[in-house]
Amino acid sequence: MNRxxxxxxxxxxxxxxxxxxxxxxxxxxxxAPGLRREEVAQLAVMSTDYYTRLExxxxxxxxxxxxxxxxxxxxxxxxxxxxxxRVAGHSAPDRAAMTDYVAPGLLRVLDRLTDTPAFIIDALGxxxxxxxxxxxxxxxxxxxxxxxRSGIYRWFLHAEQERWRYPEDDRDRQSRAQVxxxxxxxxxxxxxSRAGELVRELTGLSQEFTQLWEAHEVSRRFEDHKVxxxxxxxxxxxxxxxxxxxxxxxxxxxxxxxxxxEAASKLTLLAVLGTQEFAAGQG
Length: 283
What we know:
This protein is an alpha+beta fold. It folds into 2 domains: 3-87, Orthogonal Bundle (434 Repressor (Amino-terminal Domain)), CATH 1.10.260; 104-275, Beta-Lactamase, CATH 3.30.450. It has helices at 3-16, 37-44, 48-55, 64-73, 78-87, 104-111, 132-138, 151-157, 159-162, 171-189, 194-205, 207-213, 262-273, and strands at residues 118-122, 127-130, 225-230, 234-244, 250-256. Strands 2-1-5-4-3 form a 5-stranded antiparallel β-sheet. Strand 1 and strand 2 form a beta hairpin. The model is unreliable at 278-283 (pLDDT under 50).
């Protein structure tokens, strides 16, 4: 671990960012244009003390999980992220197998979407990052680990927890769409990839998945219009817009509704209340 190189790298990249680059308000009395240490720590979901010690060359060797979080917080490119891993004493992760990296371009767009549900997933349906309205509508996925991060995995193995968010008459179509999306990723990534691992995992545990997998349906297109169910607000009709990275390994999904519609009013309520409980549900 090269403490000097690590500290210098973190400081330079933190100072190069502006609050608006990461969706934060500049506020008042900001003496320096770059991000504060506590802001980077907040974005990386770690303590300010831990991050500060890294910049001061006195922290412990960060884990690969911590480095992944810092990479997202500092909006590092893949090459910059690889360098960060190496100076911290780790091998650069396999880009084909990485599950914690988020494309900076998609993050910049997501940072500006504060009043409508938006989230980024990878080719295996793993939620990489969500904004507050998305967490309020779809649940907070930040604490999930392993295959539990994949919406495809949860759809077939935790049906009771996942499928209630969709109307009953739409669930069969959703099942086919989940499998068709994984089939597309499997074809692109190959049987020895993480897509292949997920297929083998689901084939051994879900008969429904196995039957749909044998149908060989392939699709990467997200449904343009869908109905989602919130436990307090009820059904919300939304349009889904998808923005892919160039290699189509990640996609930003944005859920919107026509202006002045009932659904738009419900999305506004979500944005205001976030993940707080509604007063009617607290009795």
